[in-house]
Automatic annotation (TrEMBL):
The protein's name: YdbS-like PH domain-containing protein
Region of interest (Disordered), residue spans: 185-217
Keyword vocabulary terms for this entry: Membrane, Transmembrane, Transmembrane helix
Keyword Transport among record annotations: no
């Protein structure tokens, strides 16, 4: 059986994945695991209740074995970027949903699940039809739902901060461009002011000097 710590409320850090085989999981460089678990160990109880009595006629043994193998070979993971699900005994069925696609999160518990402390979290995506991903029979589904909602909100805040930083950079570039344009304009105006311009008085003085020179001759 898995470590009891994996069957409690969600925890952060790599300690919660110590007893899980997550070789199938491929994460990005800046992606971190927030929570990981198998289904709750008590989720095999219904199969035991049905399978043990039937084991006397050998029919119940496959039921119990299938339930246990499904429990051992199912993993659910929440990271800071999305949700992952791995199911399958002989083969692997891996699903992944990024937080940017998540539209709705809900959880449910049957009467037995509520009494034993497990339930399911269902995730719907924008543009999808119905539930796209389901964490079945996990411990404390309400806490997992809250964890997912917090990670989605954190991702939105990070995205908004990134957009704000980009806007700040663009604003600084515009300020620099305006300063350069202003400097170029001022230099052009200064160059025109230094160019000598003949005035009416200068022209008149030149004419008087010319006439005086002719008279002297």
């Amino acid at each position: 059986m898995s470590s009891p710590s994996l069957q409690e409320e969600p925890k952060t850090g790599n300690g919660v994945t110590a007893d899980l085989d997550l070789d199938w999981l491929s994460l990005e460089d800046d992606e971190e695991i927030r929570w990981a678990s198998t289904p709750h160990r008590y989720s095999v109880v219904p199969a035991l209740l049905v399978g043990v009595p039937l084991s006397l006629v050998l029919v119940g043994i496959p039921i119990v074995a299938a339930s246990y193998l499904q429990y051992k070979n199912t993993n659910y993971v929440v990271t800071n970027k999305g949700l992952y699900s791995k199911r399958g005994i002989l083969s692997r069925d891996v699903k992944q949903i990024g937080f940017e696609k998540v539209q709705n999160i809900s959880y449910s518990q049957s009467a037995i699940g509520s009494s034993l402390g497990y339930g399911s979290v269902e995730v719907s995506t924008a543009g999808g039809s119905g539930v796209e991903l389901r964490f079945r029979s996990i411990p404390d589904p309400a806490s997992v739902q809250e964890l997912i909602a917090r990670e989605i909100d954190a991702g939105k805040r990070d995205s908004a901060d990134g957009d704000g930083d980009a806007d700040d950079v663009l604003a600084e570039i515009l300020v620099e461009l305006r300063a350069i344009r202003s400097a170029v304009t001022d230099d052009g105006a200064g160059g025109d002011a230094e160019t000598p311009t003949a005035t009416g008085e200068d022209v008149g003085a030149e004419r008087t000097a010319s006439e005086t020179a002719r008279e002297d001759r």
